[in-house]
Structure formats: C-alpha cells, structure tokens
Amino acid sequence: MRVHAILLIGCLSTLSGPLGAIRAPAQTLSTYGTPGLVDMPTAEVLPDGTLALTTSNFETTSRNTLMFQMLPNVYGSFRYSFLRDFDAGVGLSRYDRSFDVHFQLRRETAAGPAIALGLRDFGGTGVYASEYLVATKHVTPDVIVTGGIGWGRLAGRGGQRNPLTALYGRFDTRQDSNAGGISTTGQLDFGNWFRGDAALFGGLRWDVTPQWSVMAEYSSDTYSAEAQRGLSDVRSPFNIGASYQFDNGVTLGGSYLNGSALAVQLSYAFDPRRAATPGGQGAAAPALKPAEQVAVASWNLAQGGPDEPQPPRLNDVLKSQLEAEGLRLISFEREGSSARITVENLRYGAAAQAVGRTTRVMANTLPPHLQHFEVTLAENGLPTTRIKSQRSDLYELEGDLDEAWRSLARAEIEDAPDRIAVDEDVAPFPRFTYRFGPYTQLSFFDPDEPLRYEIGAELKASYQPAPGWTFTGQLRQPVVGNLDASARPSNSALPRVRSDWARYASESDLRLSHLTADYSWRPGQDLFARVTAGYLEQMFGGISAELLWFPVGSSLALGAELNYARQRDFDVQFGFQDYDVMTGHASVYYKTRGDYHVQVDMGRYLAGDWGTTVTVDREFNNGFKVGAFATLTDASYEEFGEGSFDKGIRVEVPVAWLTGKPSRRSITQVIRPVLRDGGARLNVQTRLYDKVRDSRGRALAAQWGRYSR
C-alpha cells in the first residue's frame, strides 16, 4: 500500500502546469481500437462522450473494439478478437475477450505533454495483458510525438529491469500470463500489474490535412505468442500507417506491421448527443391561438336549443386534440378558474415535451376563464407527477429565447395524487392495444460461434380494464437463425437458471414469452407499489412484489422487490420444472447532477447465490445510454465457471435518435462476455423505477429544454 501511495502521489504531481490546456482530440485509433499510433497507445483521448467502433484485420488476427469516452479524461473499451489457429495445439482458434481502461493524468499544455496511464486486457485471458505510462506532445500544430514505457506484452522488445523495483522489490517479477492456453477469464490480476521487465516505445504522427494522417512507431511488442505458433513473422520493430477521416466520423486506415504484414482498419466514432437524423423530433408544437379565438370556438359556447345543431362537446375536442399530439386523455375536471387534466404520454421520449404539448392544447381548447393548469402524468393508469402552471405564462413567454427554462422557474412540480379520478365522459378504460411485427434476439461470444441470432414474428397485446391494472402477453414464432444450433451442454456447478438457454431455443417453437397480470398503485406520498403474477419471462414464472420510495424532487430512490419464481419448461408453453426459488433485492438508485446514473442491487439471485450488482450508466438528454455492470456473489470463481463473475456493457439507443421522429421506444443491447448462472436476476418487465423515473422531478427538469418543442 505504501508503494501504491507513492506512485499515486507521483502521478498527481504531474497535474501541475500552466493554464490553457490543449484539448486536441485524438486524430487516429490504433489497431486496438483506442487512441494511438499503429499498435502503440498515445496519451490522447477522444471528445467526452464519444462512442467508437473499430475493426482491424491482419494475418490471422481480427480485433473488434467498442470504446467509450466515459469521462473527459477516462475511456474504457471492450475488445473481441478472433485469433485463427492460436490454440493449434488443441485444434482451436481463439475468440478472445478483453477490457481496457485509460486514464489521462495530465492534459497537454504549452509547457508539457499529456500523460496517461493505461491497462490493456486487465480482465481477460492475458493474450494482450499489458500496462503502460505514456506521454504525448505537439511539437508543431500538425506533428505529435509520443513516448512511453510498457509492461507485460508491451515489454517484449528491449525489456529492461523494471524501474519500479527501486520502490518495491516484488515489481521485478511477473507471473506468466495465460496467453499460452485456454483459461478461465474474468479475474482481475492485480498482482501482475506494472510488474516484470519494462520496455520503451514511441513514435510520431503527422496530420497532413484535417483528414489525412500518417504514423510511424517503434513497437515494444514482439508478437511472441503469435510468432511461437508460426502465425506471425516479426522482421522489424517499426510500424508505419496512414488513415483518412471522412466527415461522417468514419475513418479508413492501413498499416504495415512488423516488417511483414499489411493491416486494414475501419473505425466509426460519433457523439451520441447528436442524433443520426438531424433536425428531427417531429412536427413543431402547436402555436398558441389568440384567447378571443378560443373563446368563440363552438365547443366553448352555450348549448343551443333542442332543434338547433349541437356543437361538439369540450371533452371530445380536448381528447381528439391531445390524441393528435400523441397524448392519451384519462381525466379532465374544472373547478373555478382551475383545469385539472391527467394524460399518458404515448409518443415523446422526454416527459417535459409531453407536458408542454398538453398545456398548449389546453390553452387552445379551454375557455379563457380557466387560468390555472394542473397536468398529472400517468403510466398505465398509475399517477406519477403533477405540474402546475399558469395559462398567462404560456402567452407571456411565447417566443422568448429562454422560454423553456423561464417556464420551469414558474412551474410547480409536485407529487401526483394517490388516485386518478377517472372521467366517465372521457372513457379511458378499458383499453386494448397490440403490436405485431418482427423481433431479433442476439447472443454473443459462444465459444463455438461468436454471434448467434434469431429472427421471427412477435405478437404483443395489452389490456387495461381500470387504472393500475394491466394484463399483457407476448407470443414469438422463430423463423430463421442459429440460436437453436448450439450443441454445447451446460457444465454449471450452480442450478442451471441461465446456462440452459440453448435448450430453450432448440426445444421450443411457438413461445409464450410472457403472460402476466400486473397491478400498480400509490400506497402513500412518494411511494409506488406493484404486484405482478404469471409467466414473468421466458425461463421463469411466479409472482413478484415491489415497493419504491421516490421523492418527486430527489436524485435518490430506494426500492425493495421480493419474488417467488419457478423454472418453466423448455418448450416455453404452460408447464413448469421442479426448480423454484425465493429471490429479491434491495435497490438504491442515484442520478448525479451530470449525465451519470448509478444503481446498486443487493440480494438473492436465481441460483440461490447472494451478492451485489453495481450498474453505472452515462445517460444523455436525448435518451441515449451507455453503461456497464458487474455482479459479485458468494458463488466462487470455480462455481461460476468461465468468466469468473457476471459483467457486461449495455447500450440503449432511442428510436427517435435513429429516425428523427418522436418515440418512446428504444433498442437495448446487452453485451456480456459470457452468460452463466451466477448473479442471474429475474427479468421482470414492469419494474417501477424504469416506469416512473422520467416523469419525476429531477429527470423532468433535466429535459425541460424540450418543453416548448
């Protein structure tokens, strides 16, 4: 611990320097899919929030990397590599999974270089396991020089005694990595970091134009594991490369490695905050009509005699106008100068946009004497939040440059009433909806097949007889794919709650994916409750109960869930197997003042193991999310098996981001290095926090910029 403290103090001391740091982003990505030269890393980073995808191919190696700039000075990456004939001794190629993390300790300034510390393959098989300390400096606006010292794989050429040995003698030795054979991945090998021999590397980049860059480097990586297997012919320590960056974020590159191999590389880097379809989000909000025009509208006039044509009812006009804006009217009442309305947002990714559209429809429809507006947002008949505003503010702030934020300052956001007073004239219940269309299911990183997929037809239906009550069902019919082609049996030492996924795919045809009855209600102020029963997911059925405490203006929420679950038959019809379990979690949810959201779940999992899951997401205001999770339980590494513990990356892309049209739908993909039984949680689709969070105070206020759109 003393040595690590000395190292930390030494790194922090580099933070001092003059003001005016140079924030030039990395121009090129290396063959590892991270900021670098050809193979070697640099101390650079990408613009904060950037997501980058890279594939590089040479000789018998293909590297495919997902990289995310999670903080202004920290990025992480997940890499999936195909190493053909790498394990030829046992007749196997290798599909290798690895994680990297890079910390920029010091930004580049006019007086000094950027300095960074990095870990490659710190939780994988060890094929690429290495650490580095690197510095990068612009010597001219277009020429950038990099020099560094590496350990592990980056100490293969010209390795010398580790300079850290002067601080602690044990830094002199490093255990042999697992690069020579098939290993159990996932364990963090802290004891090997920055140990063993160290070697120098370096190079330069010349940005010939804003698009063209050329690179040259001296590599300290001898590709010894590949060379020993006859897969690489290393003739030179020098690598050269060139890349061209297109305006759309795509970069095409080529390089000459080790004096013997040509490499081709394709990268795509983008900012999730910028939609793929510019200028979208649908039609503009309705313009405010003059108050006199609203006053003389037929539905606001007194009813005529029995022999005169009857004007449309106000309720019907209000309902139809809201439906045109993607809003479902649930209740409407008037009292004095106040108008109270409850709506369900069916269209907008931001609840604030739904509120803004609702108040504009009210102003264009209701008689002028109704000056106080109260809008209650509901989810499946469950009231979540109430927003109070003044009609006069809409007219006063119309066209104001700060219209949205000034309206937020004048609005009152408070907890919704416990119950919805259903308006029989509106007749919002019962309600039946359905959707029929295609579905896609993906499975990654099977040792026999890196990508398995299934495409089929899906029918989803929902019936709401009364507020809070929802009956839902989903049928799936697979059509094409190889998800059911896996012949690898589960070897799990734990109850096979997830590792038999291939049997669920191969032994089923028409699937009853889920069929549930759900009741949600408000037991008190800032409290939400739910009970769900039925076939909860593809592999388990049972009953689930949940309680959530979520103050309307708070960044913190607390939840508790208890489930009785029984494993379903492999045909995914109506039968059950013998295995059942009581499972449940206590959860803490916290939204930071920035883009980050943290969730901690502690409890018992489906295999009976006890532990904790930590999830950290970067959430942008447009709904795009990138996050990672890890679960550690009392199941040992040996019991868990390959992967050692459950972990993964999650990317959620709003449909509106892709199409430019408002939508509440999103596409979510979880990337797990391996799916095992430890740390497996029940997949309940109606958990309360995800249902109500976007319409609670802090989240609602964060998206208020879309109030007037």
Automatic annotation (TrEMBL):
Keywords: Lipoprotein, Plasmid, Signal. Residues 1-21 form the signal peptide. It holds the Pfam family YjbH. This is Bacterial putative lipoprotein. The lineage of its organism: Bacteria, Pseudomonadati, Pseudomonadota, Alphaproteobacteria, Rhodobacterales.
